[in-house]
Amino acid sequence: MVDFHADWAQAEFGGTVAKLFKQHGGYEIHALADYFPEVVKAAGEALGVDESRRFATLSGYKRVLESGIEAVALETPPYFFPEHAKAAVAAGLHIYMAKPVAVDVPGCLQIEAAAREAARKRRCFFVDYQLPTEPANQEVKKRLTSEGFGKIARISTTGICTGFPDPPKTENLESRLTKLIWVNDIALGCDYLGNFDIHAIDAALWVLGERPMAASGFSRVARPNPHGDGHDVCSVLYEYQSGIVHDHFGQGPANFCANDLSCRVYGPTGNARVAYTGKVHFRSSDDIFNAEVGNVYDDGVVRNIARFYQDVVEERVVNDTVRRSVDGALTCILGREAAERGQRLTMEQILKENRRLHLDLTGLRT
Q1: Cα 87 from Cα 91, distance rounded (Å)
Q2: Chain segment 266-308, per-residue pLDDT in tens
Q3: Are 64 and 136 members of one domain?
Q4: Are residues 200 and 151 part of one domain?
Q5: DSSP annotation of 79
Q6: CA distance 48 to 30
Q7: Residues 68 and 38 grouped into a single domain
Q8: Span 243-267, pLDDT tens digits
Q9: What is the CATH number of the domain that holds 279?
């Protein structure tokens, strides 16, 4: 049995993840933390967590870390991930966390350092991406190495969604911490590119096995009556050391389009598609494969929870999801910065800038 803490601050997703942990078996959900007391109360009642182990306010996570748990699930707005992960590693805990792992370069580097320290302490550090766990996507990826497909020449990724609520701001940040409103705020959620589109970007890095060295592009705010600073439309061109061309398009809200999180792969004699929803395929000069993915989110989380459990109980600390997750976040940050500035930027440049995003937490319950 793994004594476990679920951080519920992404109520829309944290709640689902916590329930799936409980359904898996082998986990005891021992403590909960969220900024909002009413959220902690509802979650505690739903999951059978004693009132004495339900903590609210921004610092509630610290009390959770002291409550005698073995593992923690982080499902907060991404701005808080590096701080929470660092504290959890210092407390000697196993970590299961959502994406993106950070909203800025310093945060990405902090996650990377925390994962190294976790491995040194023989603790698991797992980042929950679902698309690569889907068997149909895995089958497509496997076939991409076939001779009939040829060398990958181009990648095209897409992130289209119906958007997220973006109401007027209030006197402090509290109103932005719920209902995924924070996706509209760059420092809280890493922009639309870094929070939604990142699933498609991760798929590209999963297929290619490398991160880009540069990006250029443009972006804008197109949603009606915006209040956050996040850009919801972008077109980014990534450059790789291998010479592969990678174009990315993102838009949200796009209410008259189907949601699309996909990665299309093109070679001289074939093409393929891996995706979060809908049909996937592989076509080459000598092979054809077609399939449709299922409920990638729920099914993927279930598979990842099972993998995390086995890693913990068998003391497997390979922590192999971290490298691509950090690279994926850095890739989105590179694309975000290049597109918002309307200029070509290299990965080396943004790493050297090491620019930290700051939030004004004045007036929040600490």
Answers
A1: 6
A2: 999 999 999 999 999 999 999 999 999 989 999 999 999 999 9
A3: no
A4: yes
A5: G
A6: 9
A7: yes
A8: 999 999 999 998 777 889 999 999 9
A9: 3.30.360.10
